[in-house]
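User: Show me a protein chain along with its predicted structure.
Assistant: Here is one chain, sequence first, then structure tokens.
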Amino acid sequence: MPADPPDNRLEAGEYIKALPELSFEVSGRLTRSVGLLLEATGPDLPLGALVMVKDRTANVICEVVGFHDGRLLLLAIDEARRLSPDSLVVPLRATFKAGPWLIGRVLDGMGRPLDGRPLPGAGEEIELELEPLSPLARGLTSLPMDVGVRAINGLLTLGVGQKIGVFAMPGAGKSMLLGMMARGTSAEVNVIALIGERGREAREFIADILGADGLARSVMIVVPGDAPPLLRIKGAFLATAIAAYLRRTGRSVLLLMDSLTRVAMAQREAGLAAGEPPTARGYPPSVFATVPRLVEQSGVSTSGGSLTAIYTVLLHEENDPIGELAKSVLDGHIVLSRELASKGHYPAIDVLNSVSRVAHRVCSEPHQLAQRRFVELYARWREAEELIALGTYNPGADRRTDEAVGLHSKLEEYLRQEMHERVGMEQSIVQLANTLG
């Protein structure tokens, strides 16, 4: 009698184990759009995670900004006007790889090239949302930072690792001053972020103000004002992350951001769209948390590198909430005067209303004495200027005022500087002493 054929049947549990391992991409669907806010079903993702919304005509990167009734609240990083209902929503892991090749490049807020050249695939993967630095992990600010601008080097001396703001009304020459510092700085590398500004200004800044030599030692992040608010915010954090990466490699880095106000405005748009309540002048609470987190990455590393940061702050009115916030979290402020700019006085630095909070740590005693004497004489001249205009000035009534009046042309000459002129730190100090006689 023939043997029974082998039984090749498997039990249910064994059958499941024998199946090849399958993986499915968890996805959801776009269900609602109100203003800037998008709403989607699943997948379960944390705050800050990125997703790709796929439509027949567009693929749009979005960020998770909240949850409501088991659904994701999204804000688009790219332009979202072409998305349609039921678009596919899938998780996205976007990374940025940094390397020495960054120097001389122009990128957008997500690290995509704007200069027409491809990005190399190799490099160190860096996080855009940096962890806060430990206060005890910072080195001391003890060395002066040469920015090539005589009035700043001599009177408002900056320190390596400092963070400072350039405060001005529109039209006072903020971009020109940034360009002067980018070309004249002693730092090895510049990281320049143009956030929320006009697109025309970005092209002119590169071609006219920065120049080919300045671009060759700089990394530029450009996100114009017509970009979605999240892309503007991402651009500011990308520039900061690149500057922090270059500091880790041991370089001396100067971060120039124009402007901190536009970053705060972008965060206001994003926060209000996500449902945050408005507080001071319509700014939601997240703005007052985002700005300190952004600027606190500057400092001297104990491993040898340094990150010095200069932010422009656009003032629209008295007691501007972002201006007051910036003054409280930065190590000083350089105020530009529209009145001086209207007289052709460039850079239009108002030395009487400006201060560097680390100047006493990085300046010698004779230098500090010269700074105080210059400021005193300039303040007396400004007071006498009004009396002279009214015809009520009496020479001989006050010796110090007479000295200020006699020196005012030299004081004004010291504060003026041509856009493409560079005056180093030592030269600035010598000229300050010569100006005071």
